[in-house]
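Lab notes, practical 5.
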Amino acid sequence: MYIGYDRRFASEDFAAATAEVIAGNGIKVLLSPFAIPTPFVSFGVISKKTGGGIAITASHNPEKWNGFKFREATGESASSETAAGIEKYIDIAVSADRVTSIPLARL
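Output from the prediction step:
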């Protein structure tokens, strides 16, 4: 999973926490070492041949907001089906109080 983030407030921290949880669930993570524009996440997914990516960005929303943009292995925005699958697993993990993570220093 390729993870990138923009320069908005706490995006770097949000990306690090995201990487820790994804790695904690057995998925290899490549975390951008610095802020990048959102389209660069798609480039990273394609160039690194990852199974997908996440951009931490508020996108066109007000600067106080932040969120996820999921990318498919093609670098394109996640389909509705992919997003629904991700949301399902998030709901299961949160409901079961089983959010697993690995400290960023160990990635």
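Observations recorded by the TA: Helices lie at 11-24, 38-48, 80-95. The first strand starts at residue 2 and ends at 5.
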